[in-house]
Amino acid sequence: MKGQSLCGLIVVVTILPLLALEEIVESETNFAVQLTGDDFNEAISKNNHFIKFYAPWCGHCKRLHPLWEQLAEMMNVKDDPRVVIAKVDCTQQHELCTQHEITGYPTLRFFKLGQKGSVKFKGTRDMPAITEFINQQLNLEELNEIMDEDSKMESPQTVKGALVELTEDNFAKHVSSGNHFVKFYAPWCSHCQRLAPTWEELAKSLENVDDVSIAKIDCTVYKSICQDFEVKGYPTLLWIDDGKKVEKYSGGRDHDALQTYVKKMLGIDGNKDAATDKEEEIKKEDDKSEVLQLNGDNFETSIAKGITFVKFYAPWCGHCQKLSPTWDKLAEKIRSIKKSVIIAKVDCTAPNNRKLCVDQQVEGYPTLFAYKDGKRQNEYDDSRSLPELLNYVYKLAGHDEL
After folding, report:
1. What are phi and psi of 280, to 5 degrees?
2. Which one from 90, 97, 192, 320 is the annotated catalytic residue?
3. How far is the C-alpha of 155 from the C-alpha of 151, rounded, in Å?
4. How far is CA 112 from CA 115, 128, 393, in A?
5. Which member of 61, 97, 219, 317 is catalytic?
6. Do 393 and 298 have their domain in common?
7. Known catalytic residue: 58?
8. 26 is a domain residue
9. Is residue 153 part of a domain?
10. In CATH, what number is assigned to the domain containing residue 38?
């Protein structure tokens, strides 16, 4: 089947000792439960289990590993998990894997509590497909109860001041204009359940703010929308502006942290005097800097010719603040070597720059893009030290140009 090629067959067991030298080095934190022949039957007799049968040397298994651990982190809660995410190393548990007819790696099987046998997962190995499969295997009545309890607290109507329940019918229209802070979730996800009352509180506290809506969408029901927005874990909190993803929120999930983030994205600051002083301070620094400040009006013309290395940032971003002096030094160094190479920056929080940053696919701060004769290069994601940044520009321009 296309996209479901097998890593290898059990009949190659004779060469496993050699292939074991290629074992994947897994992260120190492993959330998936490691099962063996000694505890397997007891485990599946106590709870639902979704199990990955794998071989450490298998390339497909290695690629699946981070997603499986992410799924396990969400599902394997201490208090009464609905399903346990587990794994079995078939190079160590030959008899167990043979018993469950494992003929290739990885094989994913769902063992439902109280039922004999298991159900094999045959879909694509991405988070939306896997979570949809889990929903199908869990008791449908239980899932409906969860969703009913969730809906009692949160109105499904698109009304100002309420937590907006997005669906396939209203999503595109609702987010097409304005600012939206959206929670992408799964009803069974424990982290989502803990966030739910805080998310409702956030919507209520912002009911008098006209410029933003607080919303949520169930990714186990509206899979395609979540795939379009590249949701890979739950909950995922995205800031969406005029229908386009601006960035993924990665801060604290308490009410104050979430509210502060919303106000920053809207440019609302309770301490206006302090904000004004900070803006003046930044402006003075900009006057001294060799870094060219770009905006929505001059961006296209500025990058049209030659090489322009641009930092897309937010003034409140800690990583951006840390990079700022290095970026200034980079501009000074480049200026002294080759004046035709421009080191620039764009403040994505400025009102006239928001659309520019969305168009340039800026999803977090800082984002570094180089442009060569107007054509955007791949995002720079290496070390942000001055020598590495200089080396990158040097290679981009060519040895004869710098």
Report:
1. -65, -40
2. 192
3. 6
4. 6, 20, 56
5. 61
6. yes
7. yes
8. no
9. no
10. 3.40.30.10
According to the model, what pLDDT value does residue 136 have? Answer: 81
- For the segment 125-136, what is each residue's pLDDT rounded down to a tens digit? 888 778 878 888
pLDDT band at residue 346 under the 50/70/90 scheme: very high
Does the residue 390 lie in any domain? yes
Quick check: 342 and 396 in contact, CB under 8 A?
no
Q: Is residue 7 part of a domain?
A: no
**What pLDDT score was predicted for residue 137?**
84
Measure the CA–CA gap between 367 and 298, rounded to whole angstroms. Answer: 19
Mean pLDDT of 301-316: 89
Check 189, 219, 348, 357 and give the catalytic one. Answer: 189
Among this protein's residues, is 90 annotated catalytic? Answer: no
Nearest residue to 130 (alpha-carbon basis) of 195, 74, 46 = 74
Q: Percentage of the chain with pLDDT > 90?
A: 30
Please tell me whether residues 258 and 297 are part of one structural domain.
no
pLDDT, tens digit, 9 for 90 and up, residues 366-380: 889 999 999 999 889
Give the mean pLDDT of 203-232. Answer: 87
Q: Specify whether 317 is catalytic.
A: no
Asked whether residue 240 falls in the same domain as residue 329, the answer is no
Of 217, 222, 208, 212, nearest to 154 by C-alpha is 217
Number of domains in the chain: 3
Q: Which domain holds residue 222?
A: 164-266
Q: 256 versus 142: which is more confidently predicted?
A: 256
Mark whether 178 and 123 lie in a shared domain.
no
Of 232, 193, 233, 217, nearest to 81 by C-alpha is 193
pLDDT, the chain, mean: 79
Percentage of the chain surpassing pLDDT 70? 79
Same domain, 107 and 168: no
Contact 362, 348 (CB under 8 A): yes
385, 313: one domain: yes
Q: Distance between the two ends of the chain, CA-based, in angstroms?
A: 51
